[in-house]
Design goal:
Order of helices and strands: EEEHHEEHEHHEEEHHHHHEHEHHEE
Distance between the termini: 21 Å
Number of helices: 13
Shape: globular
Radius of gyration: 20 Å
Number of strands: 13
Structural class: alpha/beta
């Protein structure tokens, strides 16, 4: 089955796509990543999206318009992927998260926008969307859903491996065997760094390119202490968070409480060190011996050097070595979720999200023809091998 996975993450900068062909042999699933791509939001759309995110006020009219505009952007990205890689059997659209509702440690709702009917209309292909909420209704956090992919990819490594995704939010899946894992959101990875870069105008792209700003700054110890005192870090797993908690006003409040006035480079250095410190603390606490890293943060040399220095006994690898390009792993994960739903299988691990039981995920928008799904499978795969077209992963 050939599936296009699509996601715009918590950096809110554009849409990642991955076309994956899945075949099953016995209890193993094999995926060939045939195409990956990225489509940026227009500056105008990204500005409107950022202006509508909590804690800023917005209107239902603006959410309706953004739902359409982002849906059309996803449709454009899907059409480009299909034109480059050929027809697919299913599109899986994560959409764009605009709010993740967690109250007293319990996830109660999550909102992803980007109307999937625009994708179905543009491509003629069925679209699976709204993939997080069913896990939440079963008592889970609906995150990190990538933990299902992580468990299949890392189950054969031995020891205590973990997968770390450094997107807007840092999430980690710790694997102690095929049926023994847990996963959760650690805290901000790039979210606060990007917010500070955007707010200070330190880089026109809104991110710390190659970590140059952090490298030129000095960590503000008083501010770092205030940031580390956030109660979220002391919550037990499973737990989830997002930009409704870690945002520009959060940084401004922390600076005010610290009573400091860091220069932009010092602020960004401090926020980068916050990610290093919180991630490294949790990796050590879990007894991880191999850390497989993905997401935009793995392209930040200062962040990665900080993790290596803080974790001298841990082997750090990029997910590319397992057939999942580090920049595209989440899009691949949503393609996998689509394969599961199409075959009548749960696409999340309860131990990874905190749900009572595993559930089939998502809602389907039909394409131009009748909806035809494969015969249901009785058991989920026990392992996954990924390869990129022209190369092989683990």
């Amino acid at each position: 089955m050939r599936i296009l996975g699509m996601i715009s993450g918590t950096s809110h900068d554009g849409i990642d796509t991955a076309v994956v062909t899945f075949t099953r042999t016995g209890d193993r699933l094999h995926g060939t990543v045939e195409h990956t791509g990225s489509a940026s939001y227009t500056p105008e759309l990204r500005a409107r999206l950022l202006a509508a995110l909590p804690p800023a006020p917005t209107t239902l009219a603006e959410i309706c318009e953004l739902d359409t505009l982002i849906g059309q952007s996803f449709a454009d990205a899907a059409a480009e992927a299909v034109a480059a890689a050929g027809p697919v059997d299913l599109v899986v659209s994560h959409g764009q998260t605009v709010y993740h509702w967690v109250d007293a440690g319990t996830a109660l709702g999550t909102l992803q926008i980007g109307q999937p009917a625009w994708i179905a209309e543009r491509t003629g292909t069925p679209v699976l969307s709204d993939v997080r909420i069913r896990d939440i209704t079963a008592g889970g956090h609906g995150a990190p859903l990538v933990s299902y992919l992580d468990g299949l990819l890392l189950a054969g490594l031995g020891g205590t491996p973990a997968a770390l995704n450094l997107g807007g939010i840092a999430n980690m899946t710790v694997v102690r065997g095929a049926a023994d894992l847990y996963a959760y959101d650690i805290g901000p990875a790039n979210a606060l760094i990007d917010a500070a870069v955007t707010d200070t105008g330190a880089h026109p792209g809104g991110y710390d390119e190659d970590g140059l700003l952090a490298a030129s700054g000095t960590v503000d110890a008083r501010l770092l202490a205030v940031l580390l005192d956030d109660a979220y870090y002391r919550l037990p797993a499973p737990k989830s968070t997002g930009k409704e908690h870690f945002h520009t006003a959060y940084v401004a409040d922390a600076v005010a409480r610290a009573g400091t006035a860091p220069a932009p480079a010092d602020l960004i250095a401090t926020l980068t060190e916050l990610t290093v410190r919180t991630v490294a603390d949790d990796v050590r606490a879990a007894g991880v011996d191999t850390l497989v890293v993905s997401g935009g943060g793995c392209r930040n040399p200062v962040l990665m050097a900080g993790l290596r220095a803080a974790l001298p006994g841990v082997r750090l690898l990029l997910s590319d070595e397992f057939g999942a390009p580090a920049d595209d792993k989440e899009a691949i994960a949503f393609a996998l979720i689509g394969w599961c739903t199409a075959h009548g299988l749960p696409g999340a691990t309860p131990a990874g999200t905190g749900a009572r039981e595993a559930r089939l995920l998502g809602s389907i928008t039909p394409g131009t023809g009748p909806l035809r799904l494969p015969e249901p499978l009785p058991q989920p795969p026990r392992a996954l091998t990924l390869e990129t077209k022209g190369g092989t992963g683990a």
